[in-house]
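Appendix B, record 7
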Amino acid sequence: MPRRERHPDERYFAALRVQDEPAHPLEAALWRLRHQGVGDEAILRVVDLYEDVFEREILQAWIIAGASDDALNKRLDISHTVLPYYRHLCCNTQVFRDKLELFRWVKNYQGTREGKLLLERAVHVDGLEAVAHLCGVATVLDAAHVNEQAMRETYFRGMGTLRSSQISSADAAAAHSQLKTAGAFAQATQRRGAPNLNEVLFKLKHREMTMQADEDIPRGEILN
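Structure tokens (predicted):
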């Protein structure tokens, strides 16, 4: 049995193919625009966004990356009125039964090279900020998270290179260097959660870690 290909814009074309006006209000709005030439500003903008390849490929990448409506409104200035139309008709991520089908669609994407690159970044860890960076939009990154991601990236790159290289080769040396860097990131990550002795002494000096003299301390809580 042939496998049915799934696409997030299926509803867009389905709404245009039917002879009678669809029951769903968003699909009906698109149908009326095409068959009767009437529609509000929201559905007009949706059609413009979808039928312009440049705008469609950018917006679908943001949605695939998990951007909320508030994020799309704030960072791309897209109206809250337009977004429900667009998600339902043009980029319905619920069409994919699982992540594997989503990955398969991205792998087989038939759009532009730039559009596929955006989608490939969108499905990775930190996909939303990667897409924002590629679009020239300011990214929102936490320094601690960046350190952890750098640790993972250098570790897996180093391990992958090491396993496919010969002993004492230049590739093996590069792999060991990457693993050493990953180890440094790991140590920095661990240190971030450990107590800082200078901070503890400072707090003790200013009595931030001591109890008030008139405070009743339960006998069981008194230590040596």
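Remarks on this record: Residues 170-193 form the longest helix (24 residues). The two ends are 75 Å apart (CA to CA).
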